[in-house]
Give the backbone structure.
Amino acid sequence: MTETLAADEAGIAAAAGLLRAGRLVAFGTETVYGLGGDATNAAAVAAIFAAKGRPRFNPLICHYPDADSAFADVVANDLARIVAAAFWPGPLTLVLPRRPECPVALLAGAGLGTLAVRVPAHQLARALLRAVDRPVAAPSANRSGQVSPTTAGHVRDGLGGRIDAVLDSGPCAVGVESTVLDLGDTPVLLRPGGVTQEALEALIGPIARAAPGAALKGPGMLASHYAPSLPVRLAATSVAADEALLAFGAPLAGAAATFQLSAAGDLREAAARLFDGLRRLDEEGARRGLVGIAVMDIPGRGLGEAINDRLGRAAAPRGND
Ligand code: TXA
Ligand code: MG
């Protein structure tokens, strides 16, 4: 049974109690819902992998209420401090070397010498993290390879019955996951996300991109990910009568079903609606026997980079995750 907890003091206290007892609780952040477990408890971390059906080599992000608590577990260089001061709390994850005394279970980092740490901006999430008073490992709260959840209902659809509770804080404002930035020797962008590469580069200068196939550096970069069950066709300039349409701006005519990401062509609005749109079209398409989801072209600037990254994975050949 998966209990739904309200976004109030009692709900936070109940969620924190479950997490401290080694149970699994999904909670909303500004990006997507995370599937939380006590990162210092290896059994809880193992349970996260099992509930998601996630490949074991894929390391998890640890969540903290503030930069000080995050930097108690990893070694922050000057660059990390500068970036954290500008973008935390917020949709940015930093990959840094673990400190020797870091209490996070090795399994959470998939045995790597580095750890991904993040301070979310969502007030309820931060209140929960303060109440737990331990690092909380939280991948997106979906079955591995499927579309990330941006509402408590999405979480229940995928993980209902497999986790103890979901703390319902309503829909997520950003809608795509955090940007993952490796600040090892030189900065490397491992995953585009809620903080744009442009914004980061304005602060710290040029940032390299992870080479395609650098699967072990950013294993969440599995080619097929975020996959709905219907095939996804990108950059559609026309749509067939037996296809569903994910529209951006003036919609193409003739689709069997249409989900509008942003009529005004606003990339923020589109990011916030992306995963919900993929889910809805997938459900409707399955119900009505449609053959696929056609996606209109979305510009690659700003948040468009993260949107196109997720859509590219949704459209990739299946079978590796
Ligand atoms: O917005 C988010 O980041 C959400 C919310 C819940 O905070 N979480 C999330 O977690 O998206 P997850 O586990 O789905 O994605 C974690 C990403 C993956 O791409 C993973 O490979 C990468 O971070 N990652 C984690 N630890 C890493 C490490 N030590 N080195 C390199 N990449 C790492
Ligand atoms: Mg994910």
